[in-house]
Amino acid sequence: MDPISIHVNGRSVTRASEPRTHLADFLRDELRLTGTHLGCEHGVCGACTVLVDGQPTRSCITFAVACEGREVTTIEGYDDDAAMRLLRQAFTRHHALQCGFCTPGMLATSRDIVLRLPDADEARVRLELSGNLCRCTGYQGIVDAILDVLQQQRDAPDAQFERLRQRLSAPRTAAVTRPDATLPAEPPAPSPANAAASDAAGIADMAEVDPVAMAKAKAKGNAIEVHFDVPHPIDRVWAFMGDLPAVASCLPGATIDSHEGEKVKGTIAIKFGPMSAAFAGAARLERDDAARRAVLRGAGQDSLSKSRTQGDITYRLEALSADSTRVHVDMIYALQGPLAQFSRSGLVKDFVRRMVADFGQQISRRLSGQAGPIDGAPPTVSVAGMMWSVLWNRIRGWLGAKPRS
């Protein structure tokens, strides 16, 4: 055990601690600062969020030794903080807490939002809060409290509050991962033109899926096997599946921006309740005509949340009869960023199976000469609507009824 010296809530403390001790345990067990709560202990729920050099940090997955010499602020250390004073009042006014377990981490994240994003609207606030989970409030009160503080600063700016904003936007060094590491200051933000060029270059390279990441995704269980039947001959289905723009037109929310040979660039729009995401990216199709097998390798990024996804979709055709074809689909996917929390649920796999089934119906319609989406489906994938269908099918299954396709 080696001594660790950290500035916590404005005072320097030194304690002997093992290198494997996480910051949350150090704060709670060594310093008795139990306002920092532990929930999932995997960096997912956000209950343990504290500030490290002013930046929200998951203390349950941050080693205490990595914070040597740094400034840590917990929920107990905001007595003289102008932003937190307004947030606490707003949380009370809008009934933004119930059991209070998530509140310390929720306030730390809310402070970051009101200081860093003075022009944030409700959609942006909800996106920024997506890494902090609450089982009680339904989030509306929390969102209203944050919007209230933002509006207060627009109507009657507080001088101390504005100084905190200036301090947060000032150049700073990045957080270190070990006591002896020294990293350079963050680079200046790129100009809009350079940012657009950078995004375009990134999208161009997205079709090169990392095989290591895919192997890890499969090991984590991010793999789905499903199939659907199409009442058409295998040769006709195979020819259709090679037409990428035609295939994209059968997938709700998908649009094609450019198409060159076996490469395609486009966007898939998804709506999850109040949250929306539009993954712009590229994909490459590899076809084996003899085996009636193909692999679509692609990757994309949501410009708002900066969440990134990549994956392989392998499909193989099997002739059931002269006029019927079964399409076997194997998916492996990896998701990083704020939206990654939605990839952990078993409901997501059910949702994907339902989406693939709808995709199969659209293909059947197109091959039968029918244009347009089924029942006027919206141009974005409504996860909420599909999730409700999935849940209803599960309930019917529990009651002994046959699930609807």
From TrEMBL:
Alphabetized CDD domains for the sequence:
fer2, SRPBCC_5
Span list, region Disordered: 170-197
Q: Which UniProt keywords apply?
A: 2Fe-2S, Iron, Iron-sulfur, Metal-binding, Oxidoreductase
Molecular function as annotated in GO? 2 iron, 2 sulfur cluster binding; metal ion binding; oxidoreductase activity
Question: Does the keyword section mention Coiled coil?
Answer: no
Where does the record place the 2Fe-2S ferredoxin-type domain?
Answer: 2-78
Q: Which domain of life is it from?
A: Bacteria
A Pfam match: COXG
What is the name of this protein? Carbon-monoxide dehydrogenase small subunit
Organism for this UniProt entry = Pseudacidovorax intermedius
